[in-house]
Structures
1.
Amino acid sequence: LTLIRALLPVLVFALGAAPRGAAQAPPPAKVAGSIKRLFGPGAQVDSIRVDSATVLRVSRRDSLLGFAQVGNVIGKDQPITFLVAVGPDDRLKDVDILVYREPRGGEVAYEPWRKQFRGKSAADSVRVGGNIRSISGATISVHAVTAGVRRMLADLTAWHRSGAIR
Amino acid sequence: VPRIAPIALLGLLAFSPLPAQERTTVGGYGDVQYTNLTGPDTPGQANVKRFVIYLAHGFNDRLSLHSEIEIEDAKVEAGDPVGELEVEQVFLDYRLTSWLTLRTGLVLVPVGIINETHEPPTFNGVARPSFDQDVIPTTWREIGIGAAGAIPGGSGLSYRLYLVNGLRAEGFSADAGIREGSGEGQQASFANPSLTGRLEWARPGLTVGGAFWYGGTANSYAPLGTGAFAAPITLLALDARYDIGAASFRVEAANISYGDAGVIDMLNDTPIGSRLAGGYVEGAYNILRHLAPASTQKLNAFVRHERYDMHASVPAGFTQDRSLARRITTYGLTYKPTWNTAFKWDYQLVRNAAGINEYNVLSLGMGFQF
């Protein structure tokens, strides 16, 4: 039973120790920065394997703050690495674009676009043209990230309700 | 809850659905069009306007290649006046940070809306706006080197800035403007390296862009002068896209100033203007928003009005051709069962200030991208 208290230094160490082959992994410092921004500093992070995915459980002392997951979607041709964080109520806290690699469409990382997802639950229809407005010139990335967030929100909610993560 | 050792964080990184080290992606777009001009002896014509294969390759997390190979008018045969096979873009990106990606190769000139975003489902109307054919020579591409990225600080601004092969004055003409002066990646001389760039501000529903091109056009043609910036041409362009509810709007405008037009016009049968200017406004309304509010399909009714003048000004000693002051009104429907497929119908009223050779066009088309 190991707790990971000081997340950031550990992650930085992990990056340093990572084989060079892990070139397209999300930069650990970015994951750590995202968790810190969304859940506040000093949160405890545990990693849970569920199905074939890895979920981050975020807590402080004995109270659950929420869960986060990192994933990739293909935009036009390059992977977009993003993070979805939900609260204990299964509502989406935020989406972070960790790495954007496409030639055009990076507007999906902009706060005014990402904030449209906040507070959404798996029961909400998270759809471009519905409750998510698109950005002209970034249409492909907008559709890819929206679909990725929708799937991830559904997974996290289902796992939480089934007790696979708690 | 199973608690996992610190090493598990490494596991998180390794077991996330990560892309492979190197990967090749195939995509494409295309459209098939039917057009029928009004008037006698103008039978309708159906054409595979374009079929484009998009190929990309990620060499590693930072270095990627992006390319398009285009076949226009279905086939290419020796002696056939139509039909083209061309590399529409091929460039390498090296991503340093979110605000700086280095780019080199055959790149799209980042002016206007359609030149960079030309996939058929992205615009209303069977054909691309005429403005994006005559004034901005879509698909305008040149070999060059430059940078692109998002301006940090949450400003919503992004940029592209390229140093590219310049235009060649000998290709200029009255009715096609600067189109045939473009190198298009073939035996480009780089005699007149030119600068082009774009600054774009975006938020959900609204994208506003400003762009420029500046460079010489002499291309070692002595009467136009020597030096990298001999016989310079300046293009300034503005564009905006705004979506609100079921309505969407587009505006594009450009001004091309060419002070040395007189010299090259002595040589050409069809003199290019010393200034080309104009643009269009377009409004569209998604009727399905009311008929089927839950649907993600779209049925856009649209109208576009283009006004541009290839002879906004002419050099001293030349006569303005008023038939080159074009006014084109297009109205029609775009049905989009998905965001990346479209079935189109439109009717165009092609007019000009001289009132000669005016006609109407009925068009049908289908387009896709993936």
2.
Amino acid sequence: MPLLAIVALAVITYAFRLVGPLCRGRLTLPPAATVVFADAAAVLLIALAATSALFNGHDFAGWARPTGVLVAGILAARRAPFPVVVIAAAGITAILRLAGIA
Amino acid sequence: LSRDVALVCLADGLVGVSFGATTEAGHLPWWVPVAMSLLVFAGGSQFAAVGVVLAGGSPFAAVAAGAVLNTRLLPYGFAVADVVAPPEHADPDATARVGVDRDDVTPDRTDFERADLDRTSRDRADPNRTAPVRAADANGAIPNRTADRNRAIPNRTVPVRARSGWLIRLLGAQVITDESTAFALRQTDPARRRAAFWTCGLSLFAVWNVAVLLGVLAGSVVRNTNAFGLDATFPAVVIALALPALADLRTRYSAGAGAVIAVALTPVLPAGLPVLAALVGLATGWRPSRRSTTHLASTRTVPHPAGVRSTTHPGSPKSMTHPTTGGSTAHPTSDRGEL
């Protein structure tokens, strides 16, 4: 991975980050758009979680990881402390793999 | 808050270690993960880009995958724009604008309030909960001397404030992440949103880069991070952070539909695109709510005894600025067009 590629990704990424804060005060988004953007963030987070829980690239990641993430998600929904959620995800996944479940 | 931030930093530190170890295991030069973490600072896209390279993809494809994945930072930027910029409490017009924008997001916030009653009741009891004052309080939590100096000057000139504001914005933009955005969105009060964003963003930047470096160093020791289930921590962290925002039923439907779409498309689309395609899920949650939002908003505001967010109620005197009823119906197409 050449340095130029990293810099290119960094510049593109920074541009995405900067548009919102820069538009602030100059361009006021329609109020509804603000709500949509907040919703969009939540939608993307959940989609990111779902895909990264289930897939390695294009392939199914096996049952261990999604099971661990599912348990962690249930714990999180039940307001378990954050470390419990994270440790449960890693721990259950690790135990399942130890038991031979990919 | 600081406890939650520390825990997120710990969790992301683990992710960072695994990222560093992954690149090391893939025989990439040590400076690749280090430079990426400093300059790109977006875990998902770093994994995606490195994954493409390690899978034999071209650097161009790696950049494209990472960049596409990071387009989600665009709405994040808009969602946290008010806390990235320094508080504009010296400018009455700007203050008014902040007030209006707070109303805009109130429909979502009210559910957060209900979720954390103790916190909001404390906020409600606070007599000084006007936006300018609270924003000034938040400045104390921000390690930024420029902002503090400006606050000390009552009649500072607009250009001076604008210049320091730019610097803060340029700095703050770099620490816009899933986590700092989620932390900011979890808070109802502008000052708390600001403190949450900066505390999380800056700590995460430091922890992430140190962790990636540690991961590179440990890469030769721990060969298989998956054996410890570390790959499951990233989605778990993201879910835990997104959950408070899902208190709104409309958001929940959108997120569910989006997740299904993204998962269904992951086997066939290039990396990064499925997550973007999840935005289509916004339509499912958004469309039916356009008629029912008024109903939802009014029923939601009823249980709040103090009526803190009553400005969102259609019957309130400020209904001319009411966002959910007026705004969403007035700009149904422009919303999606800007995404």
